[in-house]
Amino acid sequence: MPRAAAERKPRTATGNVSRIATRWAATGVEWGKRALGVDGRPPRHTVAEVLHGDEADSPGLNDREIAALRGIRRFGATGAILMAVGALGAGAQPVLQNPVQGERLLGLPARIPSVALTLTMTGTVMVVLAWLLLGRYAIGSLHTGPVRRRLSRSQLDRTLLLWIIPLSVAPPMFSKDVYSYLAQSEIAARGLDPYAIGPASALGVDHVLTRTVPTIWRDTPAPYGPFFLWMGEGITALTGENILAGILLHRVLALAGVAMIVWALPRLARRCGVAPVAALWLGAANPLLLFHLVAGIHNEALMIGLMLAGVELALRAVESSAPIRGTQLFLLTSGAALVALSATIKIPSLLALGFVGMALARRWGATWKAVALAALALGAVSAVVLVGVSVASGLGMGWIHTLGTANAVRSWMSIPTLLGLGTGLAGVLLGLGDHTTAVLGLTRPIASLVAAFITVRMLLAVLTGRIHAVGALGVSLGAIVLLFPVVQPWYLLWAVIPLAAWATAPAFRVPAVAFSAVVSVILMPNGGEYPPFVIVQAAVATVFTAGTLIVLTRHRLPWRVNPTPHADGGADGPERPAAYADSP
Question: Name one GO cellular component term (predicted).
Fold first, then answer.
């Protein structure tokens, strides 16, 4: 056959299939790059455009607003005091060694539970309302634009301190997790492995520390990292089986974490072009933090505080114009070590190291070689900290195998769990049987894959400069929290606090404020359940009391968006600078 005829030979079916497969593969790769944001095209409608915007500085409050601020401060402090008093009867009190039991005056709330619950619920609503009113002078109205005048850092710090003090001396509220901390620390102090045995088996069912541990956790190993239990061992060495002393020292740890949040959050906000006071109001003064990290004594306070402090120190080096050596290298290493240390309390905070690494890789040229070098450097620091703490504490690496302990709880706030529970309920109602467990086995892995994709997308967005590392961290933690198999109310702070330093748009602030306020007032202060009739009585009394207080303070507190101008200079009045030292 001539060569020309051979060249005109019809194409075979195998060749056609090969070309189609090649074209599909190329299309798939292109779609994958586009989904991950590495296709080189200009970004459109990015997360940063939707959620972030720089905030300009605002002048200080005028005389009328300062007077209103004092009223808001007292209103919230009164609510916090009511919570502390009501918690003597409605809080998460220990079964044994209750210090107020049998006392003539301090034990009175425990003998009238409906009144104690009413006091606590009323105080809770007052603190939430005061927080919302304070927002008028921190971020302005969410509907009428940015704040015209903003309270100073000093004014916010004093307000926050005044609200925290009563909750710091109150009995535990909203959760009994602190009793699990005490029991697991006692297990470790006895030389047993808290990652292999639960309080009931290690200490005995009738042990003073086991008795108050919630039943669901009495036979489960500790889900916390070795650094937290190591500190718990130290507390046990000081307090022994004294529950009250152990609670107070664990609250000191929680307050140390809150102090680190207050230190790091405004600095990260300035780094992102956000008003520090606005970030502190939404992040540090958030009722979820006050109620669950301070009053509830959750170890998230220490985890988030170490994580944010580490990110701030590391970004000082990464975003500095000076070469990364000497002081800058020390800041970078210290920051990475703090983030890794926070992961030895709860592992999700280790994610922050990835975003610091991507910011570092971008500084080094945003190449894959730079990514590998940054991962190697920060990975080495984190490995030294994780392994070092595990070995030095004597607890070993067993904590890695208990990270999924909390998955035994079915939380309605988790999207995949809610879908599974809803589908299972629908099956029961339709007579198809209860397939909740099977559906959860499907929805939870899918949700994990979605959260992993969002995290990878955010990491690459930091590398390409489309989003700041702090914002990407908050978005990723938000996806992980909402798609996590178990979501507790205070888990929301994993995302809300970092995002408070970056996200300024109503698309974030409106749902964050609404959800924080609603969740803060619907949970029972004793960490359990009350009889329905007691809850109804307390709720009715709380609504009546709160309504009465609003009426009585309608001329003193800024309940309305546009208060009526006063005769002494109008609504605005003379302005004052937002200086730290000059604020009341």
Answer: membrane
Please check whether residue 347 is in contact with residue 308, taking contact to mean a CB–CB distance below 8 angstroms: no
The sign of the dihedral angle between the CA atoms of 309, 313, 314, 318 is: positive
d(CA 529, CA 207): 24
Which one, of 301, 293, 290, 297, lies nearest residue 127 by Cα? 290
Q: How far apart are CA 485 and CA 442, in angstroms?
A: 11
- Residue 210 in tokens: 């086991």
The structure tokens listed for 297 are: 């004594």
Q: pTM of the entire structure?
A: 0.85
Structure tokens at 66: 């300062």
Closest by alpha carbon to 349, among 301, 392, 313, 284? 301
Higher pLDDT, residue 221 or 417: 221
Q: Across all residues in the chain, what is the average pLDDT?
A: 82
100 to 89, 105, 253, 527: CA distances (angstroms): 9, 9, 24, 18
**461 closest CA partner among 445, 472, 447:** 472
State the Cα–Cα distance between residues 287 and 363, nearest whole angstrom.
38
Nearest by Cα to 167 from 81, 287, 94: 81
Identify the three-state secondary structure at position 303: helix
Q: Minimal CA–CA distance to 235: which of 288, 292, 180, 182? A: 182
CA–CA separation, 494 vs 480, rounded Å?
9
| Residue in the structure block whose two tokens are 């309920």 | 425
Residue 353's identity, in one-letter code, is L
pLDDT band of 521, cuts 50, 70, 90: confident
CA–CA dist 201, 210 (Å, integer): 10
Tokens of 277: 């006071």
- Strands annotated E in 224-287: none
| Burial state string for 139-158 with b = 16 or more CB within 10 A and e = fewer than 16 | bbeeeeebbbbbbbbbbbbb
pLDDT, tens digit (0-9, with 9 covering 90-100), for 312-329: 999 999 988 888 888 899
Task: Provide the pLDDT for residue 165.
Answer: 94
